[in-house]
Amino acid sequence: MVIDIHNHFFPQSWPDLAARFGTPDWPSIKHSGGCKATIMLGDRSFREIDSACWDPEVRLENMDRDGVDIQLMSATPVLFAYERPSEHALDCARLFNDAALELCSRGKGRLLSLCQVPLQDIDAACAELTRAMRAGHRGVEIGNHVGLRNLDDPGILTFLQDCAAEGAAVLVHPWDMLARDRMPNYMMPWTVGMPAETQLSIVSLLLGGGFDRLPASLRICFAHGGGSFAFLLGRLENAWQRQPLVRGRSEHPPRYYLNRFGVDSAVFDTRTLEFLVDVMGADHVMLGSDYPFPLGEEHVGALIRGSQLAPEVKTKLLGENARTFLGLPAEPHVTEPRPSGSGQLTYSAYLRVPELISLQHPQSSPPHHDEMLFIIIHETYELWFKQLLHELDGVISSFRAFEIYEAARLLRRCTEIMRVLVEQLTILETMLPTHFLAFRGKLHPASGFQSEQFREIEFLCGLKDEKMLRYHQPTPEAYASLERRLREPSLRDVFFETLAAMNLIPDADRAKAIHNLYLDERNHRDWIDVCERLTEFDELLVSWRLRHIQMVERTIGVRLGTGGSAGASYLKLTLDKKLFPELWEARTLLVE
Questions:
Q1: Which residue of 309, 327, 357, 491 has the smallest Cβ count within 10 Å?
Q2: How many whole angstroms separate alpha carbon 263 and alpha carbon 151?
Q3: How far is CA 277 from the centre of its chain?
Q4: How many other C-beta atoms lie within 10 A of the C-beta of residue 461?
Q5: Distance separating alpha carbons of residues 142 and 218, to the nearest angstrom
Q6: In this predicted structure, what is the pLDDT of residue 271?
Q7: How far separated are the first and last CA of the chain, in Å rounded?
Q8: HSE toward the beta carbon, residue 152, CA cutoff 13 A
Q9: Comparing C-alpha atoms, which of 335, 424, 309 is closest to residue 109?
Q10: Residues 202-253: pLDDT tens digits?
Q11: What is the Cα–Cα distance from 100 to 43, expressed in whole angstroms?
Q12: How far apart are CA 531 and CA 510, in angstroms?
């Protein structure tokens, strides 16, 4: 498996951004006939490109020619729009993120993508990352700075923590190169500025204490071989050891952090590549080509294949390390070789069925027959929880766009998923209490009490309880995700904010506002439909809790839960929890 993690795309077309936002010098594309085009910045030519940027068939032909199985595409940094108002940059990010996924959809399973985000606005960046990841992106490409803010900026560190929580791979790409006024000629911003910018970003993150504050689970890679970092590491290490001022906020010497990040192989010289692997380690260098641009690798992978590195090291650089970086399964993503590009995406490959059905690992020995059912039921719950989070985030986005009908449509889907979750408990009740007790002791201290995604659904909807975070401390990624949900507006918040923005809340009494909607059904049918769907979702969640209690009592009686809770007694305390109490209170206000 050969995976190229650093290559770029442009859509074949996109809206006129200058007209869309009323400001000049936005990127546009000007086709010149055939397979050629020019990227323009206002009236100025920025870069000549060809159809390899937008045509998946051309990409696949070139990938077959070079023996590349998968490309991980990312936007060209000129599209980042970090210097623009954040709402414009967010709109731009969504536009090109969706375009990337559309291109991937025509890539026969061989094209993956990284999203872009409005990094000048951390809240908006985190929200778009979540949307993009749930839409199908594998991670995010970011620039190495935002204006004067380097990667050790507290806001950018918060975003990187969110990337770790989302499981998003991060590719840092240099852009907006320093000292441009001194490098007007000979393409020196690319040959000199890019390596310097990348060196700057790594050193600022390292000496700024970033790696000491970021979770070890963060998967981050720096483009262009990490720039000049590996070749100046000795200078940096010497300064750190001899001058306390150099140490900044880092707790350890620079070499200590080499296992916390990766670099790509785009250095264009075999001896340089071999030195880079020697410094960074064979597990931290990945194939990156900068395809399809003129300064990219002409035949992708040729540098690694032609080096004097050991065969097992070449295997790591060509694909194994990228699998880890992207969180891909150990088995090949493409299940059959595609030497001619004629292979078809199969049902099994698309759904990753072999990996999916290999995820059940009973703890009992020998495995008890019913433990398989217990595992699959709970794994299915987690898949539905993932879908619920995806849909509920979509509801929030619809509210913010004042698309009330769409919000109601997605909420209907949420209620139907909740019905499935309630009925699923019936299957668990086919298990005899004695059969569950036969393997229950192996589950300690794991517990449904610790389902991070269910807790995230509660937090997202507005049922936030900071005390519950302690149960998720053993899982740093989940803990960070829940912390983010705690601080960002909930579905309940956004619901009422949207009502207020539409002048449908005349005073501070939210229940009264809902009451007024129902009294004017003719003019507020979409909103009433939303209210009914939210109430139904709330009701079904209570039904799920009640069925859960009954199932627990039927199976283990009044025993303590495996996670240390009071079992069914604890669950009964949750029955009075309402996600949207104002919707229930409004019903009391209605008169006959």
A1: 357
A2: 16
A3: 28
A4: 24
A5: 14
A6: 93
A7: 69
A8: 16
A9: 335
A10: 999 999 999 999 999 999 999 999 999 999 999 999 999 998 888 999 999 9
A11: 25
A12: 12
